[in-house]
Amino acid sequence: MYKTIMENISNVGVFPVISLLIFFAVFIGMLWWVAKMDKRHTDHMGQLPLETGAHVNIEGEGNHGN
């Protein structure tokens, strides 16, 4: 059933190429973004899970004044 539907769509071979190009564009964009990030910011964010006694202030979570 799917085979006949796909055979009736004109230029169906273009869709895999478009999806591959979108994937690579996002991948290259993320690599560029990470390469341009500030080193101090990445070091700070990398150390956050290791800090003890850090207070997280997210709406509805964390210390409720106790």
Key features of this structure:
single chain; 66 residues; mainly alpha; 3 helices; elongated
Please characterize this protein's 3D structure.
The chain has 66 residues and is mostly helical. Helices cover 59% and strands 0% of the residues. It has 3 helices and no strands. The termini are far apart.
Residue windows where pLDDT falls under 50 for at least 5 positions: none
Number of strands: 0
Structural class: mainly alpha
Mean pLDDT over the full residue set: 81
Helix content: 55-70%
Q: What pattern of helices and strands is seen along the backbone?
A: HHH
Outline the biggest β-sheet.
none
**How much strand content do the residues show?**
under 5%
Q: End-to-end span in angstroms?
A: 63 Å
Given the C-alpha coordinates, what overall shape results? elongated
Contiguous helical run count? 3
| Radius of gyration using CA atoms only | 23 Å
How would you summarize this macromolecular structure in one to three sentences?
This protein has 66 residues and is mainly α. The protein is built from 3 helices and no strands.
Q: What layout of secondary structure does this protein have?
A:
Layout lengths: L1 H7 L5 H23 L2 H9 L19
